[in-house]
Amino acid sequence: MNQLPPFAFELAPKLSTRELSSREVTQFFLDRIEKLQPSIRAFISWDGDLALKAADSIDRRRMSGETLSPLAGMPVSLKDILCTTDSITTCGSRMLENYRSPYDAHLVSRLREKGLVLLGKTNLDEFAMGGSTETGFRGPSYNPWNLALTCGGSSGGSAASVAAGMAPLSIGTDTGGSIRQPAAFCGVCGLKPTYGRVSRYGLVAYASSLDQAGPFGHTISDLALMLQTIAGHDPRDSTCLDVPVDDYAHAIAKPLAGARIGVIREHLDGNGLNSEIQAAIMIALDEYKRLGCQIIDIAMPHTKYSIATYYIIAPSEASSNLSRFDGAHFGFRAAIEHNLQVADGGKVRTPLIEMVSQTRSQGFGDEVRRRIMLGTYTLSAGYYDAYYMKALKVRRLIREDYDAAFEKVDVLLGPTTPTPPFRIGEKLNDPIQMYLEDLFTVGANLAGIPALSMPVGMTTNGLPIGMQLQGPALSESKLLQIANAYHRAIDYQPKLAVLS
Ligand code: GLN
Predict the structure, then answer these.
(1) Which residue of the set 178, 319, 453, 477 is catalytic?
(2) Pocket around ligand 1 at a 6 A CB cut-off
(3) Whether residues 356 and 417 fall in one domain
(4) Could you read off the pLDDT of 189-207 as tens digits, one per residue?
(5) What are the tens digits of pLDDT across the range 159-181?
(6) Which of 79, 140, 288, 491 has the maximal Cβ count within 10 Å?
């Protein structure tokens, strides 16, 4: 049983021909979770009995001759910010430590309908705010390639679970890079779809105009099959697009006929870009040239404002979204004496105000409180025009940079992150340094376009390097096709970070 292949692309055909049962495959990954969780801490919760029950039901359906989807019977892990009825949804926060949702997120229902087996819920930065998976109330996840390093974030648990072979596939969410950056740090593939391609119903909101869920896998074809499973219209999310879903698996097999690849100069020169990452990207560009692609330099004059813009818009939306956690509606409530009267300057605070205030002080961690304060400030009467409105205007300019670029090229190629994975704790007390890690990723969220990260080599220290491809809205087929052509050209063979 320990000898099963750990990759979805090898397991899927064996499941569909019944060479392997979903129970065997699910048990294999549950065993790996038991074994590796103490060192990697990729999961917040998992339930082997539930997973095996779901696996048995798929096995029965397959035995009865039912035609099932290509990923039926395949286990998947899920970032713990997506609502599930049969397990807790904590968002990595003390505030929701025991919270159980009354409904499944839309994409969770889709996964269940298509017969995927939910293994468990993965670790994240609290409410997906962060880039290192260190700020959740259960503590950090550890990078499977080197346990002294972070696995990136905020979907670090998802990326680590795939990299270590604790799950063949996973779902994360990406507000400013939280799928792509951990994918790069953990040496796996990750896709942030076009804003609105996947329903946000049941995805606990961080910054609603930027949030988007998407898949992790070992190969580009994993991403294609997973996107196929979760994409599509859902009337319960008013921003979800009502446009047909492409046949992504079919699209990625197409040859690369003269694709035009743009290079954002501002992202490749300077910016503190690590030299090994820069070299790996240059090698990839050469390979694309060899494949007959045109490489075109692109100027994105407003890209230098993207971090500042993002870190006004995201906290503004977060401060509004997280106001619902008040001790009355969801989860944690601080214990307050019933007839308590607290003097606050000249005023007296009622027990209700005191309860809300104590609940939010105790329930949220430092980074979440920092962002709520920042966002409350940028939305306040005196500063709204100076900060929030201005950020919206710059967001438009950034989007226009992308529109102009996509008149000339099919995709934009560059590094996913400026540095390889950093040490646990290294940037935790230096928020600005942590925010700068998002330099290359936040633009796609501000513009609402799809972007993916794929492994493109290793540093001399044996750490993964990620390459980012970005395309125009709804260009997922093209993006996946161009990404796949590269992996095919270099005969990319995925590897697990922890082999034993
Ligand atoms: N690192 C970014 C942030 O802290 C992105 C997070 C995300 O995409 N969820 O906001």
Answers:
(1) 178
(2) 128-131, 154, 174-178, 206, 314, 438
(3) no
(4) 999 999 999 999 999 999 9
(5) 999 999 999 999 999 999 999 99
(6) 79
Domain that holds residue 139: 8-254+412-489
State pTM to two decimals. Answer: 0.97
407-427 pLDDT, tens digit per residue, is: 999 999 999 999 999 999 999
- Say how many C-beta atoms besides its own lie within 10 A of residue 191's C-beta: 33
Domains: count for the chain: 2
Listed in sequence order, the residues at least 6 apart from 412 whose beta carbon sits closer than 8 Å to its beta carbon are 261, 262, 263, 264, 298, 402, 405, 469, 470, 471
One domain, residues 51 and 190: yes
Q: Which atom of ligand 1 lies closest to the CA of 435?
A: 1
> How do beta strands 117-122 and 75-79 pair?
parallel
Of 91, 150, 178, the residue with max ligand 1 atoms within 8 A of its CB, to mutate for a pocket test, comes to 178
User: Is the same domain home to 212 and 355?
Assistant: no
Distance 377 CA to ligand 1 centre (A): 19
Query: Using CA positions, which residue lies closest to atom 4 of ligand 1?
Result: 130
Would you say residue 145 lies in a domain?
yes
Ligand 1 mutation target, pool 129, 179, 371, 428, most atoms within 8 A of CB: 129
Q: Within a domain: residue 41? A: yes
- The verdict on whether 178 is a catalytic residue reads yes
Sign of CA dihedral 26, 59, 48, 31: negative
User: Do both 106 and 202 map to the same domain?
Assistant: yes
- Report the pLDDT value the prediction gives residue 256, as an integer from 0 to 100: 86
Distance 468 CA to ligand 1 centre (A): 16
Is position 317 within any domain? no
Domain of 242, CATH number, reads 3.90.1300.10
Q: What is the pLDDT of residues 255-290, one digit of tens each?
A: 887 899 999 988 888 768 999 999 999 999 999 999
Residue 170 a catalytic site member: no
Q: Indicate whether 354 and 418 sit together in one domain.
A: no
| Beta bridge mates, 451 | 192, 470
